Backbone:
């Protein structure tokens, strides 16, 4: 026999006491990013013959001239330094300030729009507008710029004119460092030797904010970025994943709007349809048998408790009902209709004393009921009676 020794270990370190979570840090009033008049709007250099007010550029010129004449943005937003409370936090306005995203809002805490990143969990009041309250359109512009389309939920940005340094991994790290400030990034794809990157955000609102915040900005070098909406990904795997994601989002949104009691009722109905109905039916039958036995017992008790006169009248009515002719039930080879026909002919022969009935009386006599069973001839009987 071996004995197991149990030793006690003395705990010298104090047990940590769980502390209550710290309350979220309150936002301070938003600061004024620029002073009025600091940002000077530069005129577009003429590179063509006609000026297109929709695209804000000259038409008919050289394409390379329009790219080379892109000027770098004078301001840039800093979420950590510029975010704060505005009048929109008291009035209930949910849209974001467009000039705040570009880093050039001169109003600060007096602004009527929010000076924060859009919340990915919330939804805007109008789905046909972006997070800056600008109206979307049915189709994208030819250059994939502008507000965007309300027919497609686009979360991917096209970032052009990137100066690559080293391999594609280093370029991807540079792009991620500059674009993660505007929201959670799902994936980044860099086309090496083409100076192009695709940045996909988890939320569409973050993609809208990043498009305005990084327009005409630069990364680690002095390049001037060309940020546009990306076209639809032709990869079939990504198409299936995007479709599944939209379906899940729709289901979650519907579930959030529904009453929990309705959800529980639907689950109960679905559980019954999956096979639990049979078990409940069996239990119901057992309960029905028990109830039937209890009813019979109560009827028996009621019969014993009846008055003699009431019981006598009920017996007389029962005997009168039993005296009525009962329908003939077939228990052999002949059917009930056949027995009724034979009985009818036997009554006729009995009345006429065995004399054959004239043909005229036979015509007047009602026809016997049709036989649906097997006749005697089917069994080879020679007796006509």
Residues:
């Amino acid at each position: 026999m071996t004995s197991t020794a149990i030793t006690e270990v003395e705990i010298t370190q104090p047990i940590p006491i769980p502390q209550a979570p710290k309350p979220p840090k309150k936002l301070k009033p938003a600061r004024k990013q620029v002073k009025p008049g600091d940002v000077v709007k530069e005129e577009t250099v003429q590179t063509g013959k006609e000026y297109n007010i929709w695209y804000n550029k000259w038409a008919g010129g050289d394409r390379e001239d329009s790219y080379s004449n892109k000027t770098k943005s004078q301001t840039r937003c800093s979420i950590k330094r510029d975010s704060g409370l505005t009048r929109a936090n008291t009035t209930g306005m949910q849209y974001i300030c467009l000039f705040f995203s570009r880093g050039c809002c001169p109003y600060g805490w007096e602004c009527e729009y929010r000076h924060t990143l859009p919340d990915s969990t919330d939804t805007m009041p109008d789905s046909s507008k972006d997070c800056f309250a600008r109206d979307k359109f049915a189709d994208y512009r030819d250059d994939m710029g502008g507000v965007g389309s309300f027919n497609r939920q686009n979360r991917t940005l096209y970032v052009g004119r990137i100066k690559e340094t080293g391999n594609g991994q280093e370029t991807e790290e540079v792009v991620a460092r500059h674009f993660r400030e505007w929201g959670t990034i799902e994936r980044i794809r860099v086309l090496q030797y083409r100076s192009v990157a695709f940045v996909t955000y988890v939320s569409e609102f973050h993609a809208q904010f990043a498009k305005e915040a990084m327009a005409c900005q630069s990364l680690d070098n002095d390049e001037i970025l060309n940020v546009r909406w990306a076209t639809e990904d032709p990869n079939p795997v990504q198409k299936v994943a995007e479709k599944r994601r939209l379906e899940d989002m729709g289901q979650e949104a519907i579930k959030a709007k529904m009453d929990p009691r309705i959800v529980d009722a639907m689950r109960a109905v679905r559980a019954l349809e999956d096979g639990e109905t049979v078990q409940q039916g069996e239990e119901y039958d057992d309960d029905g048998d028990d109830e039937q036995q209890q009813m019979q017992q109560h009827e028996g008790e009621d019969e014993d408790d009846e008055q003699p006169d009431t019981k006598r009248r009920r017996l007389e009515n029962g005997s009168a009902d039993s005296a009525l002719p009962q329908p003939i039930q077939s228990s052999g080879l002949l059917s009930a209709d056949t027995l009724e026909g034979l009985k009818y002919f036997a009554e006729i022969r009995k009345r006429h004393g065995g004399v054959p009935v004239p043909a005229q009386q036979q015509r007047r006599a009602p026809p016997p009921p049709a036989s649906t069973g097997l006749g005697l001839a089917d069994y080879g009987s020679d007796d006509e009676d």
